[in-house]
Amino acid sequence: MKITNPGQIFNLMDTNGRRNDVVNALQGYLTILDQVQNEKKMTWAALPQSLAQYVFYQQALRMFPEVFRQHGPYDKLQKILKDYPDFEEALRREDGNWISRNQEQYAGLIRRFDNGIEDRARHYTSTLVKLGFADEERRISPAGRLLLNPDQLRRDALENMLPIDNVNLIYLRQLLKLRIFAEDRYYAPFQLALFALLKRGRVTENEFLELVQGLGPCSDFRNLEDYVLNYQEGQIAERFKIEIPAGVKGTAPMTREIFQAHFKNRKSSGSVEIYWEYYCRLRRYAEKPEEGSLDHLLTFYEANKAMLNKAFGRGRNMFALRTGERPLPEKFSKQYERMLGDNINEVFYRQFMLSKKLDQIREYSDTTKRIFKATGLIRFDHGFAELAYGELCACIFEENRVRERISGSTVEEVWRGVKGAEGYEDGEDSCFCSVTSLCEIFGYRQEDQEQIKAEIQAEFSGAAMEDISRMMARRRREEFAAFIESVYPKERVRELLGLFEDRTKDKQIKELVSPDATVPTIYEYLVGIAWYYFSGKKIDLLGSYNLTLSANFEPLIHAGGGQGDIVIYEDTRVVMLEATLMNQNSQKRGEWEPVLRHSINLKAKEEAEGTGREVTTFFIADCFDANTINIWKAVASVPLQSSVDPDRFTEHVVIMPVNTRELCALTEQSDHYGEIISRVHQLFEGEGKAFDMGWRDKFMDAIV
Q1: What is the pLDDT of residue 235?
Q2: What gap in Å lies between CA 196 and CA 225, rounded to an integer?
Q3: What residues make up the domain containing 598?
Q4: Final residue of a domain: which of 103, 136, 152?
Q5: Which of 675, 232, 143 is nearest to 428 (CA)?
Q6: Which residues have CB under 8 Å from 204's CB, separation 6+?
Q7: Are 627 and 660 part of one and the same domain?
């Protein structure tokens, strides 16, 4: 990723379109991009050259209605289009050729598309480019293709040791390759993150994010180890070089014009007026340090304290005074001598720029943190950052190799046969965009891998490698079980599930569970935990989720892959849970086909493999209509074809609807878990009787 100047703070997601659910957003945007380019065959360009960016924006609004609730420019354009019916019809048909032929006639209208619509499409997809999932032309890269189809990932020997899923690993690979370029230097922020956590073990979250976000390609890396080991919050400001503009230099007061040119707030023009008034009062006191001018200064400061502290105090109080406290001018002047001296302009500007830099670091680091979490390796907990599976990571990520990849020269370094930023990351088949394993990224030869394996075995008392993998998986399951017991006891799960009945509580749900995930993903996550309690805590829930989790066991995204939401393999049965928040009408359109397909394919697969396990699907939602209930009962009586193997048919496909309240009640029926599932199967056996419209309610009333 290239930045325009050496002092710029890098940003992994543009301000326009920034979201908490970053990983979910990227998955969605990548899916839309795939549809636009490969299904609709549109090249990535603006009107009149292409409809791609307009169509992308439309699809994003449809995919994420809960995120894009307001879209003024788009709504305004739709009203304007009513006056141009031919053009509107061409858009509806997605007829780019017609628009291209008639572009001169509609030139003014076409220009409207870029403001707040096509430019937003470019913003929303920019993070895909920054992470190597697409190139600048928005062509999906091999790494992006892998993210769309994570089941196709092939792990190397060391990656097999990491207890993270394929989506986690794809993000880990790309972040390990991520470089920020400026001039002829580069900086690899995730390599720095690894190095800091390897050296310090546990770091406060603020220190960790400042370390990672505050450095850049042209930073001084000569004493990096000492700097990382001894870093304290806020010290990053000491490394910033602030160039004082000519108009600010000198002892004379700045004019309003000069001030407005150098003291800006991109979010609020009104803030600049407050900055100006504060500067004037500060100057007035510095020139005439009296009680009246001091009171004048401090009264204004107290009235605008939050804004001024953020703009000039790095988010902290600039004056160590209680509200209303007025010290003698002599004492105040001595205490803040540096701020009030002859170089007051330069100090004032430096305060502003350093505060601005730190504010950017804090703002941009939020997205960086969320993307780092997608690796499944960095844990953020109670204000601290640390590596999950620390002893394993210390062996796999050899410290010296991590250190030497943090920064370097694009002129001198050759990586996979290329030099420079362009050779490294430009184009869908570039080094950055390619599918590259961990061993390839670090250049581990076979002997290196054997050495690392030996070190891992030493950490685990000489255990065999395959046993270590099982030990790590078991440890992770145990940690997850402890996490559920601590964070999601049965009573809390039932309370949280109760909130989904009222969709106005979606924001509250995200705050209580995970701001990084969508509400449907959170629902699926909690459904799984409720079923865990229903099973008497006997199932392997972690291994059953088709969710990607953070190192903190928080839900991030549904991993996809054409399978059920939760598939639980037991000795004598397989249980699949399909969870949805779609309402009764939407269920028919959005769930009937995939739920039936997943159920058929799972049962056909079990039969083909001869496992002898009983297969049951439970369809879980807040409510159902009568047709949904009865359709699921009816499909059990007919043979159905597998979509994976068209030559294979299966019978007695069992899909049992259970609503959220009933699921909560089932958490108290753990003693009858196996019995209830067996009774479900009996319920679906054909009896040659007239169809009972009340079959489901009668059954649930009997067991709940």
Answers
A1: 85
A2: 8
A3: 488-703
A4: 152
A5: 143
A6: 233, 383, 384, 385
A7: yes
pLDDT lower than 70: segments of the chain: 559-561, 686-691, 693
Position 241 scores a pLDDT of 82
Dihedral in degrees, nearest 10, Cα atoms 433, 438, 442, 443: -90
Pair 164, 141 in one domain = no
**Per-residue model confidence (pLDDT) at position 314:** 87
Q: Residues 293, 188: one domain?
A: no
How many domains does the structure of the chain reveal?
A: 4
Q: Judge whether 653 and 600 are in contact, CB under 8 Å.
A: yes
User: Which pLDDT does position 238 carry in this prediction?
Assistant: 77
Q: 210, 361 in Cβ contact below 8 A?
A: yes
Distinct helix (H) and strand (E) counts, the chain: 35, 14
pLDDT tens for 557-595 read 986 667 789 999 999 999 999 999 988 888 888 888 999
In a domain, residue 14? The reply is no
Alpha-carbon distance 423 to 320, whole Å?
A: 52
DSSP string, 157-224: TTGGGS---HHHHHHHHHHHH--EEETTEEE-HHHHHHHHHHHHSEEEHHHHHHHHHH--TTS--TTH
Per-residue confidence (pLDDT) for residue 691, from 0 to 100 = 63
Tell me the β-bridge partners of 689.
none
Q: Are the beta carbons of 442 and 173 closer than 8 angstroms?
A: no
**Rounded distance, CA 269 to CA 334, Å?**
34
Residue-level length of the chain: 704
Closest CA to 551 of 401, 369, 406, 410: 369
Which pair of structure tokens corresponds to residue 493? Answer: 């799960």
Residue 699 belongs to a domain with what CATH number?
3.40.91.50
Q: How far apart are CA 126 and CA 144, in angstroms?
A: 13
Hey, what are 630's tokens? 């009865």
561 with 655, same domain: the answer is: yes
The answer to the question of residue 518 being in a domain is: yes
Residue ending a domain, among 109, 124, 152, is: 152
Which DSSP letter does residue 513 get?
A: S
Instruction: Convert the pLDDT of each residue in 456-504 to its tens digit.
Output: 999 988 899 889 988 998 999 999 999 999 999 999 999 999 999 988 8
- By CB atoms closer than 10 A (0-12, 13-18, 19+), residue 70 is exposed
Residues 640 and 527 in one domain: yes
For residues 507 and 519, the answer to whether their CB atoms sit within 8 Å is no
Judge contact between 320 and 280, C-beta under 8 A: no
pLDDT, residue 456, reads 93
Token code pair at residue 347: 């100090």
Rounded to two decimals, what is the model's pTM? 0.89
Measured CA to CA, the distance from residue 424 to residue 431 in angstroms comes to 5
Residues 404 and 439 in one domain: yes
Grouping H, G, I as helix, E, B as strand and the rest as coil, residue 65 is coil
Asked if residue 354 belongs to a domain, the reply is: no
Same domain, 207 and 270: no
What is the radius of gyration, based on Cα positions, of the chain? Answer: 30
217 and 132: one domain?
Answer: no
Residue 464, domain member (yes or no): no
pLDDT at 561: 62
